[in-house]
Structures are given as C-alpha cells and as structure tokens.
Design goal:
85 residues; alpha+beta; 2 domains; two-stranded antiparallel ribbon; 41% helix; 12% strand
C-alpha cells in the first residue's frame, strides 16, 4: 500500500521507473536476473521499505553497562527495543 501511495503522490518518480522498465524489459516480463539493470526500481523498493518497514521494531539489544539517554538512567542488562517507525 505504501508503494501505491508513493506512486500516486509522486507521478514523476513513477514515470522514470516506467521508462526504466520499458528500456530494460521491453517485453514487459521482469525476472530476478534484471535486478542489477534496474537501479532506479531498486532505489524505489529500498525507499518504500524505509518509509514503511515490514517489521516495526529493530533487533533487541541488551546493555552491558549502565547508561543515560536524554537524562534518563537505563540500568545494566536492560533490553532495548527500538521503534523503527
């Protein structure tokens, strides 16, 4: 859904992507072997994943020592979960 939203909001990006697909895959069939020849499409995919990650949380980490973050003390051995969104 994020991909479609971004394509509707940014039609110029959609146009460049379409031109790249037409140039690299004139028959309209895209295979995994075409991936290295589609850098603009690859960038769009990476941006969509950055814009709306599949998993909202990063990899859990555990502190090896006490820490202070923005004035708040975080004790040693605390498990930290980051919210990617």
């Amino acid at each position: 859904m994020s991909f479609f939203l971004l394509m509707v909001v940014h039609p110029a990006i959609q146009l460049v992507a379409h031109e790249e697909l037409d140039r690299v895959c004139p028959n309209g069939l895209v295979t995994s072997a075409d991936r290295s020849n589609l850098p603009y499409i690859e960038s769009i995919i990476m941006e969509v994943c950055r814009y709306h990650p599949v998993a909202p949380f990063g990899v859990p980490h555990r502190l090896d020592e006490d820490d202070v973050f923005e004035g708040m003390r975080i004790p040693k051995r605390s498990v930290i979960l980051t919210n990617v969104w």
